[in-house]
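does this look right to u?? inosinic acid version
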Amino acid sequence: MPSTVLVGTQWGDEGKGKICDLIAGDFDCVVRYQGGNNAGHTIVVGDRKYGLHQVPSGIMYPDCVSVIGNGCVVNPKVLLEEIDMFEHDGISTANLKVSGNAHIIMPYHMDLDGAYEQLLGDHNIGTTKRGIGPCYQDKMARIGLRMQDMLDESVFREKLGRALDRVNPQLEKIFGMPTYTVDQICADYLPMAERLRPYICESGLLLNEMVEDGKSILFEGAQATLLDIDHGTYPYVTSSNCTAGGSVTGSGVGMKNIDRVLGIMKAYITRVGEGPMPTELAYETPEGHTLTEDGYEYGVTTGRRRRCGWFDGVIANYAARVNGLTDIALTKLDVLSAFDTIKVCVAYECDGVRYTTVPEHESVFAAAKPVYEELPGWKCDISACRSFDELPQAAQDYVAYIEKLAHVRVTFVSVGPDREQTINRYWK
Ligand code: IMP
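got this back:
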């Protein structure tokens, strides 16, 4: 199996978890390369549902090595909870590895995440409040603590002391919040370090050795293209590189070793948190159906209702370019079965100018009005279709239309939440 990057192409929640779970077993290794426990996806195995936040999807396959790469941020408590959950259910975590260079989410990162959001008032980002932004901020400021630091008490204490010298005055003087002592955090974190010690390793080396041995790697992206710190709808983004490029820096594997980029694209679009979304729909649609309810669009991590809208072809085309997509997995096509007609955004208009690509200027994007094409719906249940030919003609045409907009082939079509409810057109 050629090494592949799996990446979200919209604002997240495209169904990466299902597709990742579907193909993870084809790979020798699954590595997460960015983000932390802001991510959340549900994997259904039989009648048991697992909500994953930190651990890569490969964990479900006993022979697959699951790596939390150097580009990730790790909340040790959440990671241990997930490890315990799997071990309790007889799913071995012996093949789980955590990069010694991944940064640790500290309690003050979570405090600051909330405090910064409050300070922003109406301009808040709508973060998951998991401490992600402040943790990456410390990484860039070079005062972050890494997983490797947890393994040596004196190093951990010393670095933590230096970090607190900068963090505590902020907490106290700017936000009037309680401060932390080194002892207090050590009491919490050092016992967790002992439990995590067997999992922590030089993951870049491990991955490159696997590549040299001819093993295949799946790079599991979290969040998505429009939440990327560089290529997303800044400032309403997360703090890491979610796009395919992040797979290289976030894992230590060179780009010549990556063969395919599979973009996960929902058949409509959703967003949680704040920021512009040109095709956003009012909550109720005239047909009495809502994408929110038909698609059960509520966040796995925070339970928030997702904002929903028609498929945005401008974004699809942009994501194809930014990530260098070779394939698309189109998800939740079945959710559109209820609609008489289906709109697809093919361009934006702003101040009389027509845009067929995402405008770089933030205020143009914020004011962009969608230009729609209306396609006929299929109005029947497609959740039992298992081949492309079984789909009604209107559904096939919808898929073909998306391929035309993105200039990338649609390799998978997902017609329901279960693994089997997937049409595989080209994947091998
Ligand atoms: P943060 O990643 O918690 O800093 O949040 C920044 C933005 O990214 C917010 O709009 C979040 O709602 C969004 N976000 C973060 N993680 C996810 C995800 O896994 N799915 C969808 N949106 C996300």
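The chain has three domains: 4-96+201-257, 104-196, 265-424. idk if thats expected tbh
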